[in-house]
Amino acid sequence: MNRFLQTRPAPLVIAHRGSAAHAPENTLAAFVLAADQNADAIELDAKATRDGHVVVMHDPTVDRTTDGHGQVSDLTLAEIRKLDAGSNFDPRFKGERVPLLEEVFDAVGQRVLINVELTNYTSRGDGLELKAIDLIARHQIEERVILSSFNPFGLRKVKLNQPGLACGLLYSADQPFYLRYGRPAFLIPHLEAHHPHYTQVTSAFVGRLHARGQKVNTWTVNDAVAIRAAAVAGVDGLIGDDPILIRQVMGRSGNW
């Protein structure tokens, strides 16, 4: 059984883009640190390069988090690998590189669970879904990964090609009406989880999804009030930038 779907007494601590409060987001440094900080899982963002490699980057461009410029989908892996992905966060991380998804799997795939967000929102049709499925299979970590996306059609493609992979539909209150509160979930066969923004979470809402047999992992909880409220509402996973803070608020030690 997929470990994201197991019943447990307290929510999973899921480090958003790694331990992003303490290290440059979506880097190996952040993911290894999250594991060292006893996070149960990490969340990361996957994109395809121009030459078809899967790298870990949140934004459509490399501008905010590296010393480079341009759309990820317009750059080759070799071009992206030259960029410094650490100095913008802190000079101590100078030389940190944008990782390949498979490098993250190699580094921490047996230490933490992994939430892979498929973020090809501006480059649909790039084959990211099938590339991610292939990498997960090659590393034999199907039971330790959940795939998420704001695009229900991307998750539908995952399910039609690999029904056994767990998926979670992302959404937020500022989306168009027809996307809010997971309304397109019916498009995704056997959807296992919902990933709402924390402002959408109530105990009644979580209860309805649990009654359908679906898990609820909420994002991005970065203060004690939001963490406690989501936990009281009964969510299954807390996605936040600071796993240490979440642990302190929850008052518990790790499960993995």
Give the C-alpha Rg: 17 Å
CATH class value: Alpha Beta
Number of beta-strand segments:
9
CA-CA gap between termini: 15 Å
CATH superfamily: Phosphatidylinositol (PI) phosphodiesterase
- Helical segment count: 8
Order of helices and strands: EHEEHHEHEHEEHEHEH
CATH architecture: Alpha-Beta Barrel
Mean pLDDT: 96
| SS strand fraction | 15-25%
Question: In total, how many domains does the architecture comprise?
Answer: 1
Alpha-beta content class: alpha/beta
Percent of residues in helices comes to: 25-40%
User: Uncertain regions: pLDDT < 50 for 5+ in a row?
Assistant: none
Strand order of the largest sheet: 1-2-4-5-6-7-8-9
CATH topology: TIM Barrel
Rough outline: globular
The major β-sheet equals:
8 strands, parallel, barrel
